[in-house]
TrEMBL record:
Keywords per UniProt: ATP-binding, Nucleotide-binding
Enzyme active site: H231
Record-listed ATP binding positions: D235, G236, N237, G238, R239, I240, G241, R242
Name recorded for this polypeptide: Fic family protein
Residue span(s) of domain Fido: 138-294
Any one Pfam family match given in the protein's UniProt record, by short name: Fic
Claim: ATP-binding is one of the keywords in the record: yes
Gene3D superfamilies xrefs: Fido-like domain, Winged helix-like DNA-binding domain superfamily/Winged helix DNA-binding domain
Molecular functions (GO terms): ATP binding
Keyword check for Signal: no
Length: 391
């Protein structure tokens, strides 16, 4: 069993039982006597770590092979998806269009502006800040800046500082009067010391001579459970915790890594909640690492699919850019805008008419031509006929 406790230090906390509905609950991880000495069986996760290193390197290589235009497009799509999904995990739904506008603004693109929606602006600013800070030492000031950016415009909570309220910081679900406490974080008075120790650990060297690259996925998983267990802010802990995981990956690999972490978590949020709750009741985080490495793999595969889609898009316009008329190109560009997941519901003659602003006869003729050229495949028949990109 590999122990990371030497990196973090030790702290003796006397465990006082917490009761809920007159039932004795298990202690939380921070109440255990050897907190925060996380431990895990490295032989169980060795294969997943090696696989992660390979996937990240392969995807980054493909991304670097894109033209500047398509690299920018892929980066923007990845950042927007991360910003939108990390908010959705917390039950906050922001406009993708507003987030896109703010991301483009932050990247310095012309004809773009910061959204007027402070929630969309905050989601975009957090992913941009955490990406720009990827190779800087972690600090209290950095985390507070992230918190300020994320929750800008929120007047109900203290921005850019650790929580100070005397009430317990609890993660609760259920209707009023039927609440279920999933987790209770350390008291506010202990947060400054806990966060100081976390920051010292984070900025330390990899354990047991493990290379930074191979250690990156492990550190990404550990910093998330460590940060979420302290829950240092009044709000925004989940989103900042995921941003920290992204930062840890990038530092280890030596460049900003694009990984669809939040989209992968949001797709199976119940599994995330269950894994987090289990990990916060023990210091043996082997199961948590297995779970989180699986999530990272799903995120990387999503990014890989996004990059491959962009490569296909670039190849398509190289091949057909001069052989299609402007009307046909306009429709195909619109289909490509939907990303690698495809045009929802497929492309019908009616949708073609709406995009190209042409009569039905022209739309039908164009669709048949694009099918004959091997660009579109036919799905369904009769009134249900739809077309999908083959390329």
């Amino acid at each position: 069993m590999m122990r990371l406790g030497a990196l973090i230090g030790s702290k003796l906390i006397i465990f006082e039982p917490i009761t809920l509905d007159n039932r004795l609950t298990m202690p939380y991880n921070w109440q255990l006597h050897d907190w925060p000495h996380f431990r895990f069986d490295d032989s169980v996760i060795e294969h997943e770590v090696i696989e992660m290193v390979h996937l990240v390197g392969k995807t980054h290589g493909m991304y670097e092979g894109l033209t500047d235009q398509f690299r920018d497009e892929t980066l923007i799509n990845a950042l927007v998806e991360e910003a939108v999904k990390t908010s959705e995990i917390e039950g906050e739904y922001v406009s993708r269009k507003d987030v896109l506008s703010s991301v483009r603004h932050n990247l310095g693109f012309e004809n773009s502006h910061h959204s007027d929606d402070h929630r969309a602006r905050g989601a975009a600013d957090l992913v941009m800040l955490s990406r720009s800070d990827w190779n800087k030492p972690l600090s209290e000031q950095m985390l507070h800046a992230w918190h300020n950016a994320l929750l800008q415009g929120n007047k109900d909570i203290a921005l850019g500082r650790w929580r100070t309220h005397s009430e317990p910081m609890q993660v609760i679900s259920g209707a009023l009067g039927q609440e279920r406490v999933h987790f209770e974080a350390p008291p506010s008075r202990e947060v400054p010391g806990e966060m100081s120790r976390l920051i010292d650990w984070y900025n330390g060297k990899p354990s047991h001579g493990v290379s930074p690259m191979k250690y990156a996925p492990i550190k990404s998983a550990l910093v998330h459970i460590y940060f979420e267990s302290i829950h240092p802010y009044e709000d925004g802990n989940g989103r900042i915790g995921r941003a920290l995981s992204q930062k840890a990956l990038s530092e280890g690999f030596g460049y900003p890594v694009m990984v669809g972490l939040s989209p992968a978590i949001e797709a199976k949020k119940k599994e995330y909640d269950a894994a987090l709750m289990e990990a916060q009741s023990t210091l043996d985080v082997t199961s948590w690492l297995q779970y989180f490495l699986g999530v990272l793999k799903e995120g990387i595969l999503t990014t890989d699919a996004m990059v491959r889609f962009t490569l296909k898009k670039a190849s398509f316009f190289d091949t057909y850019g001069e052989s299609l008329n402007e009307r046909q190109l306009k429709v195909i560009r619109r289909v490509f805008q939907e990303g690698h997941s495809g045009f929802e519901g497929g492309l019908s003659a009616r949708k073609y008419m709406a995009i190209a602003k042409c009569p039905k006869a022209t739309a039908t003729r164009d669709l048949q031509y694009l099918h004959q050229q091997g660009i579109l495949r036919v799905v369904g028949a009769g009134r249900s006929t739809r077309y999908e990109l083959i390329y």
